[in-house]
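Sample entry (359 residues):
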Amino acid sequence: MAAAKNKNIHGDFLPNLCHPQAILLLVLAAELIAILLTLNNSHLPQLNWDLLAIYSIQIQWISMGSAIIICRLRPLLNGWSPSKAGLISYGTVLAMTLIFSLVGQIILQIFTAPVLSDFALLKIDAWQLLNNLITAAILAGISLRYLYLQQQLRNQQEAELQSRIQALQSRIRPHFLFNSMNSIASLIGSDPDRAERVVEDLAELFRASLAEPALTPIANEIALCRRYLEIEQLRLGNRLSVEWQLGELNDNVKIPSLMLQPLLENAIFHGVEPLPTGGTITIKIAQVKKQLIITIVNPYLLGKKSQPAHTTELDNRHNNMALDNIRRRLRVHYGSAARLSSSEEHGSFTTYIFCPLAQ
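Predicted structure, serialized as tokens:
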């Protein structure tokens, strides 16, 4: 497999609050909160319009200031754990509330004081500040939680959509289909029984690629990979060697469907195929306590800049897309408890998958 840069793929923690639609919703939500607070402190026949204006200005400044800061921090928030990102976002809103509450008290006293220059008469109402902080803490907690859940649902939908598109369009490369059909055609006359088995293997691969993305027993995934490797063995012959190192696996353990086959396809396409003498792909699967560890090792031919000599920019994009897709799918199913990483050393490329046991 080509040496691809290892990078963490995280879904967005919160929606983009700087988007025009998000800003409009924030303004409307802030105004509704201002009206609600005003109604709580007055009655409809004698609505305090001055109080409404004060609440509106203050809440709008708090919401807009918080949104701007969270937008600036968005790249960092997406890379942090949900708990850390949540605390930072929550603290931002509370900090903005404290700052604008203080500024609001000072401005009101300046414009209502008999002598505008007499700053010695300025007083800070600590109870009012505490009241504002408690109110902001409740509203911010509810709002941020809602925005977080909304974004996570959107992330999951996007990951599942990308997974489905990847399964339909990119999981099995066209060259593999053409080579498989040529192999079948060559076997029909000399070994019809084997040709029939290859057709069945190919049909099973396409059936799996067209199925809805879901968790599947690991035994089924291994069986599917064996079918795929048997088809490739027809084309590559002795140039392709496969070594399976399977530990004691619980039959009830499940992993995302079609997670291993794209990695093996990349290992052959980027690793074994360009080597004149071929090479060996080693697949290690083991359970360690409550974690499933999958390791795939393949050789690759180095060219300039530590990249396989035959690899094109399109091939690299396809390789990176496959790895990124698997990272997204792992994140959808397991959250931050699963990860995919890779390393290269002495002409060998190794892919690691760590995920909790899902039964």
